[in-house]
Design goal:
By secondary structure, the protein is of the alpha/beta class. Helices cover about 50% and strands about 10% of the residues. Strands 3-2-1-4-5-6 form a six-stranded parallel β-sheet. Strand 1, helix 1 and strand 2 form a beta-alpha-beta unit. Helix 7 crosses helix 11. The C terminus is likely disordered. The structure holds NADP nicotinamide-adenine-dinucleotide phosphate (NAP). The site of NADP nicotinamide-adenine-dinucleotide phosphate has 27 residues, from helix 1 and strand 7.
């Protein structure tokens, strides 16, 4: 972009998402300056070393001074205290957004602290990895992925359009959605798969010494893909579960019922039911690949050897 869209971007939280935003906005010249905040000195030092930010602060309130775009990139449960802390320093006319994996609760917790004249537009880039921290980010993370914005009805349309263009500038497609609907959709597409992964890996771990060495040794099977999800950041996923409780419980209920049907099909050797389900699910994967949201290479295009 020839002229940057924003003068000063404040990234509150410099982990996987915050650092990835920094990489892409620098690459595509979307902002003039970046200030950052993180709670640990280690993260702040790394952020400066990597050139993720032009200035870094331990106090997020100092990072947001004069920023016309503020992005909260912290675990969902940390947003409220940060919103309260930065509120007095937010510039009039600034856009305040976040990247949290849950939206309704974040709005309920953050909105009361947003001063008049600041445009709060919650967001969620549907892009991530199981890595975390300031060294985990990369410029291509958002390329070809969806970013969902969930503004309340009263939010200024011009600011929504500007934030939309910002995410387009990061390589994303953008959708506008009701926050509660977002939480329900993500409960099935992201939150439930993570819970299933945490559960299956936890069960295997509980089998302990009897089978543990076999679990590791033969993990090239389906189990290995679950361990990738189950290696995701514990704080982030604890917060997702605590803040999207209703939708997750609803999806877990449906999942348990369907699992019981599958259990019955196995018990009664109902091959037709098994075949029908497995054919239906195979088509879902095909549709995802056709939509450009994954690649069809075996093993998800990953190397076979452990990294
Ligand atoms: P991350 O790599 O763990 O980074 C979190 C950052 O927030 C770190 O810089 C951390 O600082 C800072 N932080 C944590 N607690 C804080 C607190 N109480 N006060 C101030 N700063 C705090 O996490 P991430 O993967 O970037 O995730 C950030 C957000 O993005 C989450 O809300 C998550 O739901 C959302 N998200 C994640 C993914 C994903 O796949 N990871 C995808 C989409 C959206 P220190 O390093 O100093 O501790």
């Amino acid at each position: 972009m020839e002229t940057p869209m924003f003068k000063k971007l404040a990234l509150i939280g410099l982990g996987l998402i915050g650092s990835s935003i920094s990489h892409i906005v620098r690459k595509n010249n979307l902002v003039e300056n970046i200030s950052g905040a993180a709670q640990s000195e280690k993260t702040r030092d790394i952020a400066l070393e990597l050139g993720l930010v032009d200035e870094v602060h331990s106090d997020p309130a100092e990072a947001v001074v004069d920023a016309d775009l503020v992005i909260l990139c912290v675990p969902v449960g940390a947003n409220e205290a940060i919103a309260e802390r930065i509120a007095p320093n937010l510039a009039k006319g600034a856009i305040l957004t976040d990247v949290g994996s849950v939206k309704r609760d974040v709005i309920n917790l953050v909105q009361p602290h947003v001063p008049a004249g600041v445009h709060f537009i919650p967001g969620h880039p549907i892009a991530g990895t199981e890595q975390s921290g300031p060294e985990a980010g990369f410029a291509e993370l958002f390329e070809g992925r969806w970013c969902i914005l969930t503004p309340e009805e009263s939010v200024d349309a011009e600011s929504i359009e500007k934030l939309k263009q910002f995410w387009v500038g990061c390589g994303s497609f953008v959708d506008i959605m009701d926050a509660r609907h977002h939480d329900l959709v993500l409960a099935i597409t992201s939150h439930l798969p993570h819970l299933i992964a945490y559960n299956i890996v936890g069960t295997a771990d509980d089998l302990e010494t009897v089978t543990q060495s076999e679990v590791i040794k033969y993990s090239a099977g389906g189990f290995r893909d679950f361990t990738r999800l189950a290696a995701s950041d514990p704080i982030m996923w604890r917060d997702v579960c605590l803040h999207n409780k209703d939708a997750i419980l609803e999806m877990l209920g449906r999942f348990s019922e369907d699992l019981a049907s599958l259990q019955r099909a196995v018990r009664w050797s109902d091959g037709d039911a098994l075949f029908d389900l497995f054919t239906r699910t195979r088509n879902v994967r095909k549709t995802i690949i056709e939509a450009g949201q994954d690649i069809s290479r075996p093993d998800f295009g990953r190397h076979n050897s452990p990294e």
